[in-house]
Write a structure and sequence with these properties.
The protein is mainly α. It contains eight helices and no strands.
Length: about 250
Amino acid sequence: MILLTYLFIFILGAVIGSFLNVCIYRLPLQQSIISPSSHCPRCNVPVKFYDNIPMLSFLLLQGKCRSCGNPISVQYILVEILNAAGYALILWRFGLSVESTIYAALFSSLLVASVIDLHHRIIPDVITIPGTIAGLLANAFILPGGIKGSVIGTLLGGGIFFIAAVASRGGMGGGDIKLIAMLGAFLGWINVVITIILSSFIGSVVGILMMIFLGKGRKYPIPFGPFLAIGGIISLFFHDEIVAWYLGMNLWY
């Protein structure tokens, strides 16, 4: 039964991941995510239901559109796999619960925001603003963090990034400010601090590697949304371990 539960959640995550690809493509274009039905963006031929099976159809079609033969971006199967794996990990960490459902929605929102940010250097308000409200409501009625920590996390995360945006004269985008505010609403103030530290560290490492191996300059713009998402997910999964490690380090001084 445990294996069947994980299999069901994994498949559910892949199915939702297929819908997330629609959101990733259409939200930056301000198109409806409901209609029309899925279609090839090149030849506009509607995708048949048997060509829209998460992960499997991409492999069977060998990454090409059945109608026009043009390649299908590998992003589609990667998003499906990542969302499926994320849901399975949430089940492993938090069990089959209402909290897991909320964290799964947060994970999917972060995945969509990250991929859009990578492609377009924007994070749509339609993700972050409703997401922040949802995070506050979830903590007010369901999540263990409580509304006080949620409000503080929202204000602290958004406030720190707003100050950084002013100080950097536009180096920090408004989408990043709203995304960290959303993370603060869901995760609370302690986790938002952890998220900022982790995302800054990961972003610095990636920036250095890009300079060394790709020859990018220090001023090369790197979207920060994916790093915030990674930092937020790590803090969600390993909050207790990170805090225990930090307190243990302090005991040596």
